Amino acid sequence: MESESQKAYGLVAEFDTPADIMEAARQVRNLGFTKWDVHTPYPIHGMDQAMGMNNSKVGWFTFLGGITGFTTGYLMIWFMNAFDYPLIVGGKPMFSPYFAFPVGYELTILLGAFGTLFGMFFLNKLPRLHHPLLKNRNFAKVTHDKYFLVVEVEDPKFDESQIRELLTDNGSTNIELVEE
Amino acid sequence: MSETANNPMLSQALAQAPEPPKELVREPLVLNQRNVGWISDQVAGIIEKKTPTWWWIALGASISVMSLTFIMIAYLVGTGVGVWGLNHPVAWGWAIVNFVFWIGHAGTLISAILFLLRQKWRTSINRAAEAMTLFAVACAGIFPLIHVGRIWFAWWLFPIPNANGIWPQFRSPLLWDVFAVSTYGTVSLLFWYTGLIPDLATMRDRAKDKLRKFLYGLFALGWTGSNRHWSNYEKAYLLLAGLSTPLVLSVHSIVSFDFAVSQLPGWHTTIFPPYFVAGAIFSGFGMVLTLLVPLRTICNLEDLITKRHIELMCMVLLATGSIVGYAYMMEFFIAWYGGNPYERYAFINRAFGPYWWSYWIMITCNVITPHLFWSKTIRSNMIVVFMLSIVVNIGMWFERFVIVVTSLHRDFLPANWGYYSPTIVDVLTFVGTFGLFFTLFLLFMRFLPMIAISEVKAITPQADPHHPLGGAKEGGHH
């Protein structure tokens, strides 16, 4: 395991203010890096644009979940009350889209919500209970009051001295190479 | 704003402009310009500090009271529903009153709707409001299960065929209710948990001992605050808020269908769905105030849950209380204007019949009391606000009592008239659910961040990259 632990994961730069890290992110994006990220204690408004990211795709999972829920609800009610064991109640039809609506609606929301949450986990590759950054003591401040920019070693444009210079110029207070 | 910097005349004019009048300046949502680190120290500090003595006393008292519910349920199941005050004609008594009372604490709606409306002040109260809802749903869920009488057949409510292969029938609003309430509980939990993930990561990173680090870490799911994650996270949170809002509206509508879809005068009214929703926001804010007004002082959170937050909540109470009052008035109007003699009788009987006292308690607490909040002096007096919030809760319990009992106790024929009183078992079962509610809430405030740390951070000027306090140079821009 000795050889594995020595492999570097990436260069981690610490910043004190959201304005500094936003400017640094803008420049890192403009230089064409691909394997890099910004870690912050809260979502910074405008950071997605600064990093050049596209709109999140979570909505598709919500949509799929919702459609599944609605269909399940209607099919379930039709199957139970009109197909498998038809029961006459108050002379009402065996199946009608009207009385199936409340349950269909609730299941739309239920599965839509599960789709949203699990879609978010899927897109974020979570849960992940082990991460190179989480081993770094200094990085723990990311959930407190510091802002971190990480460029991974695997980025094709990775050049340690160039990135160090760029981030120091943009106000980074501490830069470390974090091991895998 | 970058125009200002480029135009010397404009910036000079702005520099000489008088200060805006005091009443136009918005009070900040986090007082004393606290920085983002202070927010996590303060909120997480509640959990990390030594357990205060008052907490142990409160927990002990809550658990003792809670045990009443379970003892009474054991007695009920062992003996039969005869131990309750139910009889002909009032076959739905306190159990249903209590169910509707507890389900009607719409903290999830408060959180979700304020989020959709971009009300930044929600960040200080949403976590506790959502927790309140979850615990209130736990209390509510007990009653439909035990009121079925033969509790060992409660599974007939679920979509499982019984011994004869018969499925539940979906034309009944009671079955809609099963789906509505279980979806409500589940989605409220998902919404609450989603909001907790970044804060659990904060707790993980601050944890000193291994067990805490492991447990908070496990539930934080490896959150690193990555912006690529935040992007999906924020979208998911927005969508969950967007799903929760119509969900809560539907839950309270469907609970009202339990009544409105029947043919009984006093229940059979189309105003019920919106009226139940307004009532749920009203009593939801009432309970949030009951919990947070003392806790902001006890836990030193006055800079985060400011007087302005309390005042805003009082104003919502005023608005929703007025909607509820309007609904009471409109019910009466329709009872007269609709021309149905049974309907008219039901409402006259409600206000002036044998249960007149419950009706006027309801009117006093829900319609008259909220109008005290027109006064700023009252809104900013914490002791008065606390007491009035309890009055609101009492009023909302009586509202459900009035709906259930006064409509049932005299229907179409005088042969079906009667007077219902609860037994001591009814009373103790209900009192015990307050023990359950406070036990769960005390455990929540001891082990989980009571305020959404990352969300409060995000609304401070220090967190805004375009604000000078967030490090922006040259006045920033938008």
Helices and strands in order:
The complex is a heterodimer of chains A (180) and B (478).
Chain A lengths: L1 H4 L2 E8 L2 H13 L5 E4 L7 H5 L6 H27 L16 H24 L22 E6 L7 H10 L4 E6 L1
Antiparallel strand pairs in A: 1-3, 1-4, 2-3
Helix pairs in contact in A: 4-5
Chain B lengths: L1 H5 L1 H9 L19 H13 L4 H27 L14 H10 L3 H10 L9 H22 L25 H34 L3 H11 L6 H34 L11 H27 L8 H31 L3 H12 L3 H13 L7 H4 L2 H28 L14 H24 L5 H6 L20
Helix pairs in contact in B: 4-17, 5-7, 5-16, 6-7, 6-10, 7-8, 7-11, 7-17, 8-9, 8-10, 10-11, 11-12, 11-16, 12-13, 13-14, 14-16
Short description:
The complex is a heterodimer of chains A (180) and B (478). Chain A is α+β, with helices and mostly antiparallel strands and 180 residues long.
Task: Tell me what the structure shows.
The complex is a heterodimer of chains A (180) and B (478). With 180 residues, chain A is of the alpha+beta class. Chain A has two domains: 2-54 and 129-179, Alpha-Beta Plaits; 58-124, no CATH class. Chain A has helices at residues 2-5, 18-30, 47-51, 58-84, 101-124, 160-169, and strands at 8-15, 36-39, 147-152, 174-179. A four-stranded antiparallel sheet of chain A has the order 2-3-1-4. In chain A, helix 4 runs antiparallel to helix 5. The radius of gyration of chain A is 25 Å and the shape is elongated. The mean pLDDT of chain A is 92. Chain B has one domain (31-159, 169-459): Up-down Bundle (Formate dehydrogenase/DMSO reductase fold), CATH 1.20.1630.10. Chain B has helices at residues 2-6, 8-16, 36-48, 53-79, 94-103, 107-116, 126-147, 173-206, 210-220, 227-260, 272-298, 307-337, 341-352, 356-368, 376-379, 382-409, 424-447, 453-458. In chain B, helix 6 runs antiparallel to helix 7 (126-147), helix 6 (107-116) crosses helix 10 and helix 13 (341-352) crosses helix 14 (356-368). The longest helix of chain B has 34 residues, at 173-206. The interface between A and B is large, with 73 and 70 residues.
